[in-house]
Each structure stands twice: as structure tokens, then as C-alpha cells.
């Protein structure tokens, strides 16, 4: 049904529907009741002031881990919070079994602040190849989906990223400085050039959705965590976009990428941004 070479013609609609149902239920039971209702003891910091985790993250991931593993016998789940507790679980992304990649609340900082710019991300991969993805923004009532070779959709409407308008500055969402090395900071300085308008990114999942919708030209990100990128990268690809690392190769969810990397509305924009990142470094 799901081959490591990317063949997904037999991807069952029943599984896609069941994943959507599980994501909506996780949000309805574990995330949205806590939105704008979080108590102080329900919020913790992991590695720094911008790296937050809440009870909503933890409980939604537990819900999805159980639900998704049951949908596909032999599959495994790699979730952000489980990896934080045991980094070795991340190795499943590089294995042969189908793997569900889960970010229960992408944009936790926005969630904690009571903003609506957060989402739940789920992707299905095998052998490093992305097969399907779901991006659910419950506070906005939006669900974006993609299946390799079948296109990208937002609430049932096909997405086409298109190309940026000629002569207009490229809008590029970039990593927060707290999540960049000195070398990556230099690379990102390459975007501070005429014709490019960089800005700080919000939820990675929603930035990818904005690219797929043709509302953002590109991102330039400096970290590899697959739960932040997997769902969005497939969504952008299936909408007609592209992604490249600073070395000019497509981003690999299995790691070992030359960072920062970009995802963009079309191949030409991805190449332009990747070249600027390389020049900045």
C-alpha cells in the first residue's frame, strides 16, 4: 500500500478520513478547551524562553499516538514531546516502517498567548519519503491535506501556489534568531538584499500553508525537526512549490541537510532564495 519509493496509488481514503477524524478529535478534546484557558502550571519551558510546552501538547500527542498507530499495523509514531523525553525515538524516521510524524501544537508560543496562529501537524512517511500530510488550524477552522501525486487541498479546494508577481519584493519568513547558529545567522543575512523582504516566522505549519496558498513566497528555516517540516513540505510540493537546502539539494526529513533551507512557491523562487542563503554564508 505504501512503498518507500513513493508509490501511493492505493492509499486508502478510509485511512485519510480516519486520520482527519483523529486530528479533529484530539483538538476538540485536548487542545481547544485549553486555548485561552491555560493555568500557569500547565505551561513549561523546554530549552529556552521561546521553546514552550503545555498540557495541550502532551495530551494531544498521547491521543494521536494511540489513534494513529492503530490505523496502520506495523507503523510507528514520532512525536515532538516523545522525542523530547527520549531522543532515540527520532531514529524511527530513518527506519523501514511507516512512520507518523506528529506535532500536536505547532506554534505553542502563539497558543500560550491566546492567538489563533497554531495548528496540529501530522505526516505519514516511509523510508524518508513523505506520502500524506494534514495541517489543522482548529481556531481558524482550516484543514489542509496532501497525498503524494494527488495534489494539495484546503477544506476540499485544490491549492496552487503559483509564482510570485514579477517586480514585487519576495516575502520570506525566517527562523527566530534564538534557533540559529552564528553560521546560519550569516546565511540569513543574505536575504537582506534589494528585492527580498524577510520577516520573522510564526507557526511553521501555517507558514507552509501560506506558501501553498500563494500568500507567502518562501521560508528560510535553520532547524531540521521533522515534525515542524514534514507536513508542510509535502503540502508545498503538491501545490506546485519546491524546497532546497543551502547546498542546492532537496530537504531530507531523515536529516543531514545543509542549513538554512528554503521552501518556496515555485522552483525558481526556491533557487533564488537558496542562492542568497549560500552567498550570505
TrEMBL record:
<keyword id="KW-0479">Metal-binding</keyword>
<dbReference type="Pfam" id="PF00459">
    <property type="entry name" value="Inositol_P"/>
</dbReference>
<keyword id="KW-0378">Hydrolase</keyword>
<dbReference type="InterPro" id="IPR000760">
    <property type="entry name" value="Inositol_monophosphatase-like"/>
</dbReference>
<keyword id="KW-0460">Magnesium</keyword>
<protein>
    <recommendedName>
        <fullName>inositol-phosphate phosphatase</fullName>
        <ecNumber>3.1.3.25</ecNumber>
    </recommendedName>
</protein>
<dbReference type="InterPro" id="IPR020550">
    <property type="entry name" value="Inositol_monophosphatase_CS"/>
</dbReference>
<dbReference type="InterPro" id="IPR020583">
    <property type="entry name" value="Inositol_monoP_metal-BS"/>
</dbReference>
